Amino acid sequence: MNDSIKPINVAEEMSNSFLEYSMSVIISRALPDARDGLKPSQRRILYAMLNDLSLSPNKAHLKCARIVGDTMGKYHPHGDSSIYTTLVNMAQPWTMRETLVDGQGNFGSVEGDAAAAMRYTEARLTHMGTAMMTDLEKETVDLTPTYDETRDEPVVLPAAIPNLLINGGTGIAVGMATNIPAHNMGEVIDGVCARIDNPQITIEEMKQYIKGPDFASACEIRGFKGIDSYFRTGRGSVKMRGTMEVEEKASGTSVITITQVPHGVNRAVLQQRIAELVREKILTDISGMRDLSDEETRIEITLKREARPQVVMNQIYKLTSMETSFGVNMLAIHERRPKQLSVIDALDAFIEHRRDVVMRRTRYLLKKAEARAENLEAFLLALGHLDDFIKIIRDSKNREDAKTRLKAYDFPASTAEQLGILIRNQASIVNDRYIFTERQVNAILELRLYQLTGMEQDKVKVEYDKLLEEIKDFLDILGSEARVLDIIKTELLEIKEKHATPRRCPILPDEGEIAIEDLIANEGMIVTLSNKGYIKRTPSAEYRVQARGGKGVKGMETKNKNDDEMDFVEHLFSAQAHDYLMFFTNTGRVFVERVYGLPEGSRASKGRSIKNVLNLQPDETVAATLRLERQLDEDGNDITLAVEDKFVLFATRSGKVKKTALADFKNYRKDGIIAIKLDEGNSLIDVRVTTGDDEVILVTRKGLSLRFTEDQARAQGRATAGVAGIKPVGDDYVVGMAIVNDEGTLLVASENGIGKRSPFADYRSQSRGGKGIITMKCNEKTGEVAGAVMVLPEDELMLMTSDGQSIRIRCADIREAGRNTSGVKLVTMGEGVKLQDIARVVPDDEEELEEGEEGAEASASEEASEE
């Protein structure tokens, strides 16, 4: 007994044992095979369902307990709970991009709820699960003995689809792990076909077919760098982001609705996290949250009245799992060892596997066809000498004697050729005599009497000729690489046509990878800012063109349900979505925003508070706005705020003007910067971009104007007050400023809706600092001047009244008149309503004039009363 005990090195023994254990876990448990994309446990469950239980898609579901029992007893000697968990995983549509198992019953939920016990649930294979084992019975893959050596199991499944990339997979082995994302089946199949057609295809070309991950749960994929990284190396990080929508309620509050969460994110845990952030006063603008989800995600988050939805959404993305990453590590078993695979490597592994499957299947079918043809060949030979064969069989003592006599039958080879039989196996010819094989003799002895009829003989000949064609085709396949690859493509495209689904996860550029302007259409917008500080942008197409003198359409809600005081539009202007906006405040500061960054609203909506957009002080309000059209240099860089030889010209209520270089504002900050020094009681009226050599016209409330050259005011820094432009008399003050354009006219409109266009030639140039000359004859009918703007004949004019009505008219419909006249009616207003603001609008394409009866009547009556 003592002789059987041997001393060993414990450290060496532990090292060897752990190495064996590690390799067992890596090869036989945790990592998927690169060929079929399955782990051994998954493979054994699918094999048991088809081979032992025949659970094809057209069969009835079977209790999962039975499936687990057969798998555990015959193929996978591990715990039933782990086998059932694997089975459930393959049936969950939020886990697998293309489920392999069709589950019936409670298979859990996306919130992480566990599936019901296996005795309650039922399952069968899906079409994709069956496709994984197509042609398994045709010796397409190697078989290996099971753990108890009582039966065989496949080493790998034939896998008619590239499952590794389609469904991905996760696993933690010893010292290594894998995390492969799912992809769209149609895209992957296209990628396989492209790789077959062009073995030298590059990653960039492949990305035209396989766009990137397409997870089981719909969400946004942000950025291309991570995708490019794992396409090339098998490792990378893919950013996933859920989707949120903002809806404004009639009460003025906003609701953020979460409609998608990133793949793998638990909705219940996400809500708990948001609730924690609210309790910890990190998210301070949320007033409530409720979950309305069923099969589709719908989580509503109610915001406080003054909350800025975009800010809250950004906070949710930053502080919760609404934005997360999927760390890609494409590690799989390839040639019996773990290997880091790029996307091209994974495609090659599948193509090579399918090539082997097609070749082995063809050899199997060839062997079957040759065996059948051999029997049919014997039938035809026997039927050609039927009487001799019947006599041999009748004269034989037993079956063995008959076999011996048939083998010894003297049958000339030439006779076989005369019968039209192609002798395939020349080894059957000995001394110009045809020698029957053992199989052929047995087939002849087993002929039935009905097969001796003439009709049956014809059927045998037809079948034999067909088999010869098939054999020829099989041999051609085995001898042609192109045929094999073409078969792989054809079978894949058939599956794609039947079972491919659209992409669920759109791939969008991440911030910093592409300019956001490239994602936003540069559409025309009307921007309005009310007296109480509510701002919005509205597509200009919502404001239809009307005839001069019409009553207009409802422009915005100007009265709060809980507020008796009427609000009105104070600033209105036309802009493009990509333009910059400079907001100048009553304290002399300036803020810079993009038009697309403003809250969007319908024509009749109130908009959002400007304090949600700009970081204004409590008593600070917007006094003037300036639109800057986006400009790019030759290299595509944005130089809008850095253009040389451009100036910003300020006009104040008291008549002062100031000129500052535009480049002085390029280093703007989110909290604003100083733009102009304002004296007490003074305020900004208008701001314009100039060339430094322009001529300027200032217009006052009492109808006076002064035209002077811009070079009379030297350029000053930002923190200066400026110089005198016009000196209003008495209680008069400046209401408008226009830059002279000889191709245009000066349009002046009064508070009672009267307006006119006057040529700039009517305004002589003067020295700045004077009292000015008449630009509009103001009287009781016209009222005082509301605004002035330079317009071109093709322009359109937007007018906004104090009760929120708006009208859009063509400038060409307004008759030109001398500067010392009153003008014509532009808009019909009710009693007590005043014209609040006017703005020049560049017309959109394909707009049609919509002139109603009231507008036409108003036009006719006002033409008659023009002065």
Walk me through this protein's architecture.
The structure is a single chain. With 867 residues, the chain is of the alpha+beta class. It folds into four domains: 25-160, Topoisomerase II, domain 5, CATH 3.90.199; 243-321, Gyrase A, domain 2; 364-482, Orthogonal Bundle (Topoisomerase, domain 3), CATH 1.10.268; 517-864, DNA gyrase/topoisomerase IV, subunit A, C-terminal (Neuraminidase). Helices cover 28% and strands 24% of the residues. The protein contains 19 helices and 43 strands. The strands form 13 sheets. The protein has a four-stranded mixed beta sheet. Strands 10-11-13-12 form a four-stranded antiparallel beta sheet, covered by helices on one side. Strand 20 (524-530) and strand 21 form a beta hairpin. Helix 12 (343-384) packs antiparallel against helix 17. The longest helix has 42 residues, at 343-384. Keywords: DNA-binding, Isomerase, Topoisomerase. Residues 31-519 form the Topo IIA-type catalytic domain.
Which helices and strands, and how do they pair?
Layout: H1 10-30, H2 40-52, E1 62-63, H3 64-74, H4 80-89, E2 101-104, E3 122-125, H5 127-131, E4 143-145, E5 152-154, H6 163-167, E6 169-172, E7 177-180, H7 185-197, H8 203-206, E8 220-222, H9 225-233, E9 235-241, E10 243-248, E11 254-260, H10 267-279, E12 286-291, E13 299-303, H11 309-319, E14 323-329, E15 331-334, E16 337-340, H12 343-384, H13 386-395, H14 399-407, H15 413-418, E17 429-430, E18 433-434, H16 438-445, H17 454-478, H18 481-499, E19 507-508, E20 524-530, E21 534-539, E22 553-554, E23 569-576, E24 580-585, E25 589-594, E26 608-609, E27 622-628, E28 647-652, E29 656-661, E30 673-674, E31 684-690, E32 695-700, E33 704-709, E34 723-724, E35 734-739, E36 745-750, E37 754-759, E38 773-774, E39 785-791, E40 796-801, E41 805-810, E42 824-825, E43 835-841, H19 853-864
Parallel strand pairs: 8-19
Antiparallel strand pairs: 1-3, 2-3, 4-5, 6-7, 8-9, 9-14, 10-11, 11-13, 12-13, 15-16, 17-18, 20-21, 20-23, 21-26, 22-41, 24-25, 24-27, 25-30, 28-29, 28-31, 29-34, 32-33, 32-35, 33-38, 36-37, 36-39, 37-42, 40-41, 40-43
Helix pairs in contact: 2-3, 3-4, 7-12, 7-18, 12-16, 12-17, 12-18, 13-14, 14-16
Region (Disordered): 841-867
Family: Belongs to the type II topoisomerase GyrA/ParC subunit family.
Pfam family, one: DNA_gyraseA_C
